[in-house]
Design a protein that fits this description.
single chain; alpha+beta; six-stranded mixed sheet; 5 helices; 8 strands; binds zinc ion
Length: about 200
């Protein structure tokens, strides 16, 4: 989403945009994420307010993803909502423009001025420098998508039995009857002895 600063009126600006499934997939693959797939278009909504030389953006997104159960490899669909808030600070209007780290270092807390109705934690809103004319939300969307992705392997259900380690059968559907107990290595030598050898007379 690209917003020109003039579009943000006195009462703010509200914009909604579909996030194309392919674009979403590109965000994931560029970040080296292979365990999540996109299953459809997402949506990105943002509200912008001008506060002096800053712009506050409150954003919400919803994406549709799928991953594989870490035990049985069945697909697990996930609707992932996430939200974040960012203060865009015009680089041209700050004395610290030459030093972006200074501008980012001490975010001035403006939560009281804005009035926090929503669940946004504005005290933790990041500060981003921008050129004072246009705001591009793409990088921030991507960053927060990755931050919100569950990174631990998920299971399709707590009781998922997984796959048979011997034959690969999907054990949630059928018990194959394989002996999956690991063999105690101390018995290996005994197993080599043929018990059906005819006893010597
Ligand atoms: Zn499973
Ligand atoms: Zn089996």
């Amino acid at each position: 989403m690209i917003v020109a600063i003039e579009e943000i009126g006195k009462s703010g600006l509200s914009r909604t945009e579909a996030i194309d499934a392919q674009a979403l997939a590109a965000h994931l693959s560029e970040a080296g994420i292979t365990e999540w797939r996109t299953t459809g278009d997402g949506v990105f909504e943002a509200v912008f307010d001008r506060l002096g030389n800053k712009v506050l953006m409150k954003a919400r997104a919803l994406v549709h993803l799928s991953t594989d159960c870490k035990r049985c490899l069945a697909p697990i669909p996930l609707e992932l909502p996430f939200e974040f808030a960012v203060h865009f600070v015009s680089a041209a209007s700050t004395s610290s423009a030459a030093s972006p780290s200074a501008a980012r270092g001490e975010p001035r807390l403006m939560a009281d001025e804005i009035g926090t109705g929503a669940s946004f934690d504005l005290s933790s809103a990041d500060e981003e420098l921008f050129d004072g004319r246009t705001i591009d939300t793409e990088e921030l969307f991507r960053e927060h998508l990755l931050l919100n992705l569950p990174m631990m392997g998920l299971v399709c259900s707590e009781g998922c039995k997984g796959l048979c380690s011997v034959c690969g059968e999907q054990l949630n559907e059928r018990e194959c009857g394989c002996d999956r107990k690991p063999m105690d290595p101390r018995w290996e030598a005994l197993r080599a002895i043929k018990l059906d050898d005819p006893p010597k007379a």
